[in-house]
Amino acid sequence: MKNNRRLNGETVRRYARIMHAGGWNLTHQGIAFDEKGDLIDGQHRLNAIVQANVPIRMMVTYGVEHHDGEAFTIDNGQRRTTLNIMQISGIDDPVYKSMSAYIACYLRWKVPHGRKAEPVEIIAYIERHYADVKKCYELTRPDISGGSARINKMPALMGAAILAAIYRGENENALFRFCEVFRRNDVVGCEAYNPRHALNVRDYVRDHKYSTDVYNRCESSIYAFCNNRASLHVRDNCYPYIASMDA
After folding, report:
1. CA dihedral 10, 103, 109, 221 (to 10 degrees)
2. What does the pLDDT read at residue 2?
């Protein structure tokens, strides 16, 4: 691996997770050797195969012209987003398109030792939990008739907390009322709830960078609203998640 860039451990781990999950498919992108037999593309993929300990089929290219000191064009492309991959895969379901950011936040901030999820992991998660994710979509999707879709769209971190509340079994009418107060200041039908929780957390999310503490504040506010608590407190009866990319 003459003159290869320094190995990035996180990239290797990310590739290995995808490979181990069965999400690494045969494409035109593989590994390449130059005319001298030196590996010039694929060190992260090869190290990931070792780490994942699974067999992977790949294209192998030999004899690529490469001379010291020349500009090289391998791996200079733009990384595909989750929505890019959905488009390429022909996924046109609005649940997948609208909920990908929420699921990414859920997997990052809710799951213990969470991390940034790969697009294939986000898509697979939605597929496995489609019924509950669709409930979250119905509760949080923008109501264009009520104003700008951008204004009415639920922030990703709050959408993730709504999904957790669905898993926890919160009353769907209470969750609907929470979303109406949060998005549109609409307190009609909130006699059994305390709208202050939704309004306060809306300002809190807007003024703070995403973090585990902010996510926990979102979940606590939803719980306090749905159960008509006077103040925030440690949540109980939370959905039993596990320390992986699933819950």
Report:
1. 170
2. 61
